[in-house]
Every structure is written in C-alpha cells, then in structure tokens.
Specification:
The chain is built from 15 helices and ten strands. The protein has helices at about 10-15, 20-40, 50-60, 105-115, 155-160, 195-205, 250-265, 280-295, 315-325, 330-340, 350-370, 395-400, 400-410, 455-470, 480; strands spanning about 45, 75-80, 115-120, 165-170, 190-195, 235-240, 270-275, 375-380, 415-420, 445-450. It has a seven-stranded mixed beta sheet, with helices on both faces. Strands 1-3-2 form a three-stranded mixed beta sheet. Strand 6 (about 235-240), helix 7 (about 250-265) and strand 7 form a beta-alpha-beta unit. Helix 2 runs antiparallel to helix 3 (about 50-60), helix 6 runs antiparallel to helix 14 and helix 8 crosses helix 11. The radius of gyration is 22 Å and the shape is globular.
C-alpha cells in the first residue's frame, strides 16, 4: 500500500517508529496528485513547493523519539470555500478568482496548531451550489472510479459516490468562522477521510467552541476515538420505510439492505421507523438555501468583494454587469429563485411556510430518536450519474440529495461510509455491464448513511466503525490510483 493510501493514524504510527519520513509522505501524496489530477481536476490551487519545503523543515526539526501532535506532517486538502491566509480562496467562482485573505478560518487554525500541512484548495460547485461538482468556473471534477461520472457535491454525497468516509457534524459543533457563506442556517464544515477513525480524529481537533462564531455551541470536549471498539450489541437502529420507496436504484437498495443485515448480525436491533415529511425535504432545502444565498451573495457587488467589470455607465450597471460576468448559471438560478421567494407578497407564502415544514422534519427525527439510537439509510438513492446527464434538468439532480438534505434541515449529525459497489452483471446480448437505468454499472461505489441525535457524533461514529471493522469496502481503491 502506498503511503498516500494510508490513514492519518497509520502514518503517524510509522513516523513514530522511524520507518518513514515527513518527506516520504509528501512525495507519495504529490506523486499521486500528479498521476490523477488530469483525470479528476480535483485541485484549484496546489501548493507543491510549500509542502515540500514544510516536509524538509519537519524532518530537521521534529524529534520522533518524543511525542508530537498526531497530525504533524499529515497533508490535508481544503475545500476552496474555507478561508486560508495567504492562499487564494475562490469558491470555484470567477467572481473570486484572485481573492486572497489575510486570515485563516478557525478550523484551519486548529489544524495548523496540530501540525497538519495544507496541500492546497480543492475544486467544488461554485459557492457550493450543486449536487454534482460540475458547476465550477475551473471545470467539472471527475469521479476517480470512472471519469465519465460525477463525484458529487458537499460532503456525504461525494463520500458515497467516491467510496470514502464523509462526516457532517451537528450544526454548531464545528465553527463556521471563515467559511464563505452560502446558506447561513445550513452551512457546515464537514470531513472527508479514508476511514472512520480518521474522521473521529479530525472531529476531535475541529469540533470545539469558537467565540468568533455565534452559532458555535460551548460543550465539553469529547475524545471520539477512545471507545470505538466495534461493539454495537443491543443498540437500536432505525430504518425509515420512506427511504426505500420508488425512485431508489436497485443496486443501491441491495447493498444497503445487506449492510442493515450485517448490523443485525453484529447484535444491533433493527427497528422500522417513519419520517413522514421526508418527501418535502428537497423542496424545502432548495427554497430556504436559495433564499439565504440570495441575501448572502448580495455582497459580491464589485465594491466590497470580488472583481469588477470595467465597462459601465452608472452604479446600477456596475452591479448588474459585475454579477452577470462573475457568477455561473447555477448561482444565478438560485439567486433569482431566492430573491423571488423573499420578495414582498411571497415571503409568507414561500420562505415562512418552508421554515414551518422544516420544523416538522426536525420533529420527525426527534420522535424517531425516542426509540432508536441512530437511523440507517442509503446516502443517495442513485449511483453516481454521468457527467452532463442531469445538467439540463436541475430538479432531477437535486433529487439525488433527498436522503441528505433532511439531515441538514434538522441540523443533526450524519456520516456516509462505503457499503459496496455496483455489480459487474452483463447484458445477455451485448455483453456490456448495465444497471436498471441503462448506465454502465461497473464498479461504482455505494454509500451507507448513519444519522444520529443532535451532538451525538460519538454514536454515529461508533456504529460506522462497527460496520467498517467487519467489512473491507473502505480499503478499496480506484484501479487508476493503484497501477
């Protein structure tokens, strides 16, 4: 196994034993990036020279016979909507293509304090608006398992589509200070890792109170790794019937059902539960997020933030031309939708009513958690879809988020972990791999979502680790990265 394929805790162990150097880790990471970047377009900004220099400094400075922070020398990529001092933060938008900040987001401060090395800023949907990672000024990101497919947007969906672990903490657990705003009541900083223990490790570091964020909750510090022992005997796990109705891909349902059976074999009790307002989740999420985006993106006016067009006659034209030139189509669509929903005469009918339904979605989860410790569902109802397949049909694309957005609306924690791959079944006539929707179903990842009570990330991680410890899906790698 290459060093770049090892989890952070594993690398830390090898460093302490003196079996590898900080330079070895950096070299392995950058070789992998060089070999796959043309096929994935994952980075907007890569800090190759800086991280090599940092590795050399650490090899000279750190005495590995003594204790040092666990993330020392560990490379971490940062999504390009998180502020980084001296490194451009573009949000994958033309409007911010040269934007360099004088400060770090709180999570970046926490990571740097533990010795982590920032490799660069990664590509994304512009201002995080999208479900596929196709809406970037710097071009679409491609799925590492098959470059004809999308990798997904946000945290849990790309974890599902790319076969890795993605953790969304409770709203208020991780500071949002320095996260460029999209929809303030929904925005959160999440974690993508090789395995569940690394997700727990990072949450230990960034899941702390921050006085610079008014939504940050002050709670006791928790060691999420300490009791991840794989034992879930006697725990009640809820399975909502609404998540297995029409619209779910057969491949997805088969693998998630098998994962639920595995939990039962490990001693968990499976309980059927109901989340009756799930069907409204996508509509409510899109309405609220677009409304808040409309307000938040008003600051990009060519005066306070972002670039400015040069040819205009008055202030109104400067605003209009600057925004038209700086924003992509998906951002414009959501701003228009949100502005309409907040406009006079429609606020009560749309935005206010959406907030009321949001409360009903949260109540559904509150009721379910009276009888179960966690809820187990698919992460996405579909397999990764082809690049461009849904770009002209945004509603169809938004529906791919139906199992994740309700969790965001409720503000509760959830994790996506790998639970299998689509089959290599062949069509009896053509001999080609296929799935029920006519796409190639050859070796595409499937994600399992585990949802927890507010601020109970420990149970979410505990259940995820139990499954992970008894399966090997998280160890699989795309063929292109292991050749």
């Amino acid at each position: 196994m290459e060093l770049c394929d090892r989890p952070a805790l594993g690398l830390n162990s090898l460093l302490k034993k003196g079996e590898i150097t900080f330079f070895d880790i950096t070299e392995s990471i950058l070789k992998r990036i060089e070999s796959v970047e043309q096929k994935t377009n994952a980075y907007i900004t890569l800090l190759e020279e800086k991280i090599f220099k940092k590795a050399e400094e650490l090899d000279k400075k750190v005495n590995r016979k003594t204790e040092f922070p666990v993330l020392t020398g560990i490379p971490i990529a940062v999504k390009d909507n998180i502020c980084t001092k001296g490194i451009r933060t573009t949000c994958a938008s033309k409007a911010l293509k040269d934007f360099i900040l004088p400060y770090d987001a709180t999570v970046i401060k926490y990571l740097k304090a533990t010795g982590a090395v920032i490799t660069g800023k990664t590509n994304m949907d512009e201002f995080a608006m999208g479900s596929s990672n196709e809406n970037s000024y710097y071009g679409p990101v491609l799925n590492p398992w098959n470059s004809e497919y999308v990798p997904g947007g946000s945290v849990r969906q790309p974890a599902s589509f790319c076969g890795v672990v993605g953790l969304k903490p409770t709203y208020g657990r991780v500071s949002r200070y320095g996260l460029v705003a999209f929809a303030s009541s929904l925005d959160q900083i999440g974690i993508l890792t090789e395995d569940t223990k690394d997700a727990a490790l990072l949450l230990n570091i960034i899941g702390r109170h921050d006085r610079f964020d008014s939504t940050s909750v002050e709670m006791d510090t928790i060691d999420y790794i300490s009791e991840l022992n794989g034992d879930i005997r006697g725990i009640n796990l809820g399975v909502p019937e609404e998540y297995f109705k029409s619209g779910i891909d057969t491949e997805v349902e088969t693998r998630v059902r098998a994962a639920i059976e595995k939990f039962e074999n490990l001693g968990a009790k499976i309980v059927e539960v109901n989340l009756p307002h799930t069907e409204y989740g996508v509509a409510i999420y899109q309405l609220i997020s677009a409304s808040e985006a409309s307000s938040n993106l008003a600051r990009y006016d060519g005066v306070r933030y972002g670039g400015r067009v040069g040819d205009y006659e008055n202030l109104s034209d400067m605003y209009r031309y600057t925004r038209s030139d700086g924003f992509g189509m998906e951002v414009k669509r959501r701003i228009m939708f949100g502005t309409y929903a907040l406009s006079r005469g429609y606020y009560d009918e749309y935005y206010l009513r959406a907030q009321k339904v949001r409360n009903l979605i949260k109540r559904d989860f509150d009721e379910v958690f009276k009888s179960v410790s966690a809820v187990v569902t698919p992460t996405s109802p579909v397999l990764p879809f082809k690049l461009g397949e849904k770009i002209e049909d945004p509603l169809s694309m938004y529906l791919a988020d139906i199992y994740t957005v309700s969790v965001n609306l409720a503000g509760i924690p959830a994790i996506s972990i790998p639970c299998g791959f689509s089959s290599n079944a062949q069509h009896p006539i053509t001999g080609l791999s296929y799935d029920p929707y006519g796409r190639s179903a050859d070796n595409l990842p499937v994600g399992l979502q585990i949802i927890g009570k507010p601020f109970d990330e420990f149970t979410v991680l505990r259940v995820a680790y139990a499954y992970e410890s008894n399966t090997e899906w998280h160890t699989k790698r795309p063929q292109e990265t292991v050749q």
